[in-house]
Amino acid sequence: MSEPATLDPIEPAGPGSVDxxxxxxxxxxxxLRRPELGALLGALAVxxxxxVTTEQFGxxxxxxxxxxxxxTLGIMAVAVALLMIGGEFDLSAGVMTGTTxxxxxILATEVGMNLWIAILLTxxxxxxIGVINGVxxxxxxLPSFIITLGTFFILQGVNLGGTKAITxxxxxxxxxxxxxxxxxxxxxxxxxxxxxxxxISVIWWIAITALATWVLSRTRVGNWIFGVGGDxxxxxxxxxxxxxxxxxLFMTTAMAAALVGIxxxxxLGGQQASQGIGEEFNYIIAAVAGGxxxxxxxxxxVGAAMGALISGMTFIGIQFSGWNTxxxxxxxGVILLLAVLVNTWVRNRAEASRR
Amino acid sequence: xxxxxxxxxxxxxxxxxTAALVACGGGGGNDGGGDSDSVEQTQSKDLTIAMVTHGDxxxxxxxxxxxxxxxxxxxxxxxxxxxxxxxxxxxxxxxEAAVTEKVDGLAVSAPNPDAIKGAxxxxxxxxxxxxxxxxxxxxxxxxxxxxxxxxxxxxxxxGAGEKLDAAGAKKILCxxxxxxxxxxxxxCEGVKxxxxxxxxxxxxxxxxxxxxxxxxxxxxLESDKSIDGxxxxxxxxxxxxxxxxxxxxxxxxxxxxxLSGDVVKSIQDGSILFAVDQQQYLQGYLPIVFLTLNxxxxxxxxxxxxxxxxxxxxxxxxxATVQKLAEAGTR
Lengths: 355, 331
Known about the structure:
- In chain A, the strands form two sheets. Chain A has a two-stranded antiparallel sheet. In chain A, strands 2-3 form a two-stranded antiparallel sheet.
- Chain A has 14 helices and four strands.
- By secondary structure, chain A is mainly alpha-helical.
- The radius of gyration of chain B is 21 Å and the shape is globular.
- Helices cover 49% and strands 17% of the residues of chain B.
- Chain B has helices at residues 2-26, 59-75, 88-100, 113-125, 140-143, 153-166, 182-194, 210-223, 235-247, 261-269, 280-297, 319-327, and strands spanning 48-53, 78-83, 105-109, 130-134, 147-150, 171-176, 198-203, 229-232, 253-257, 274-277, 307-308, 312-314.
- Residues 25-42 of chain B have low confidence and may be disordered.
- In chain B, the strands form two sheets. Chain B has a six-stranded parallel beta sheet with strand order 2-1-3-4-5-11, sandwiched between helices. Chain B has a six-stranded mixed beta sheet with strand order 7-6-8-9-10-12, with helices on both faces.
- Classes of the chains: A mainly alpha, B alpha/beta.
- At the A-B interface, helix 3, helix 11, helix 13 and helix 14 of A face helix 1, strand 2, helix 3 and helix 4 of B.
């Protein structure tokens, strides 16, 4: 991730000529250059397609179903997008949703803690794992792909081994009767707007996307994130605290995973040891479909949220269509590829028009 | 660059379109229209039944799905079959999608009943009749289903344990291939009940990674020579176990839960001792029939008890009959 970013060559501004950074850019060109545009168009296309071909998809209760699928994926995709803009990956993000849900469940049911205390401890635990991931990546200089693959396997082992050792089965259950379940369930796992039953996780998803967008576009930290992902050395030379930013990003990802893990565990009344394994790639795919570059330094939170939306709409759309689900992954793969292609195409057009 | 991208995109759209056609054509083919081979009088029922399982598209679930498709064809109803690949959250979401669609009947497998309870209750509240299948016999009534179609895991496990005991095994390995499925652990518990000697559970990678699974079983057999029996809980795993036993040049006897064409062949040539057959074709077929009858005639099959589809045993004596059927994809 440390290779120099593909910045435009800086041309010396002749006397009288306007610096290209200050040149006026038309509203359309500005829009086309947004990283999330492709995903937005892709999402619109999927929405129109399934709304026309199925009866339920375009209804409000239909929307409640696909936003449900998109929401937990979206929360993770946004966090992973921030991390990817910062130039790193976290392969442990998927299994982390399992670890945290299991931890909360065990603290509440086996140890007998109040659920809220269990939730606080779970977030603290996630933050620590995030710090470990971050420090290992910074100190060793190894690719985060390798470091977090290690964390992934470690957590997968802990999830199964620990759960079996403590509960004697492969899942934690009995959360429904835990102390504080009702209030925690209301905050993290309830639904609203009867009879459509939108999930509360949708609100979390929108709020987190808005927060991440604000951080990226309006704050100094946001500039730092783009900086460390673009060119780490240059970022350090201009005084960006590279290590702190990256560790912070790993913590954000791990804590987002904790939030999602808690949501899933509270929704299902328990958690199984295999929760979240393999999901990490869905997060990365959603982020990339939403305009993040694998090389870092470029991307958007709204785009990642749109990427998740495409994924959720496709999942439920296929179900409503009654297509043979043997082919589900083919559709999912093709639609995701299309979104990425549209994205690249739009970006190429926009970049070309700049010169 | 741009033009090339556009070409790729167009190609993909083409693939998608073709695949959609193929999938719709192959997906039970009960949209009426051009299906001239469907029986006339069964097409009049305007019912849609959703079946949402935790299946993984492996050879076991392919047979259950075939059963559901055949059942839907015979009853003249539309089937919407979907699988969650062992993800309980996804399964809950798929069930809620079916409720939103206002299907006329819902069949669900319940390996993790707590997880889908909320979603199934929504179906019950919406007046949709529910049948559980495969896993979840004990919790079926609690979920609001009028019956369960499947076999009881512990009873089937005990049967397998007794049979291995009778075959003279002293120490057996019970191979667990899914992390989250409580039913598999119940089977191994049942085996412990029925078996005289000692039983050790071994967690393996699973059906998505057969080669790793094979290596895991083989190294276990090489490291513990006293193991003289391996019980797989899935036909694909059974083939891996058979090869692992040969690879480790061990004399362990291999037995398995559930059938596939390969397993039946192996039973005939003696490399697998027996298979516990839960006849999952019935687990796909019968819920469709029961739910249709519930809609058309207000029948509730089962009297609040599970309808058992197993255990049956496939051994050398009856393997030839079963072989033909397994290759046709219905056993």
